[in-house]
Amino acid sequence: MDLRVALVATPIVLAASWAVFHIGRAAVGQLQLFLKRAKA
Questions:
Q1: CA 31/CA 33 separation, integer angstroms
Q2: What does the pLDDT read at residue 39?
Q3: How far is CA 23 from CA 8, 11, 16, 30, in A?
Q4: What CA–CA distance (Å, rounded) separates 33 from 23?
Q5: Is the pLDDT of residue 40 over 80?
Q6: What is the rounded CA–CA span in Å between residue 36 and residue 34?
Q7: Distance CA 11, CA 5 (A)
Q8: Model pLDDT, residue 19
Q9: Alpha helices in the chain (DSSP H)
Q10: pLDDT tens column, 21-39
Q11: For residues 33 and 27, what is the distance between their CA atoms, to the nearest angstrom?
């Protein structure tokens, strides 16, 4: 693999993984809240 490809792809992959991590945490929180309200 060419080093330039890695240099371009690394920040994109980091940004995408950061977004997926934070959106995933928010989604899990919303799901837990929804399930908690559905029981009550």
A1: 5
A2: 87
A3: 23, 18, 10, 10
A4: 15
A5: no
A6: 5
A7: 11
A8: 97
A9: 3-39
A10: 999 999 999 999 999 999 8
A11: 10
What tokens were used for 18?
Answer: 């950061």
Structure tokens at 36: 């908690």
Residue found by looking up tokens 């928010």 in the block: 26
Separation of alpha carbons 36 and 30, rounded Å: 10
Which residue in the block uniquely carries the two structure tokens 């309200």? 37
Q: Which two tokens stand for residue 6?
A: 């890695």
Beta carbons within 8 Å of 21's beta carbon, 6+ residues apart: none
Total residue length of the chain: 40
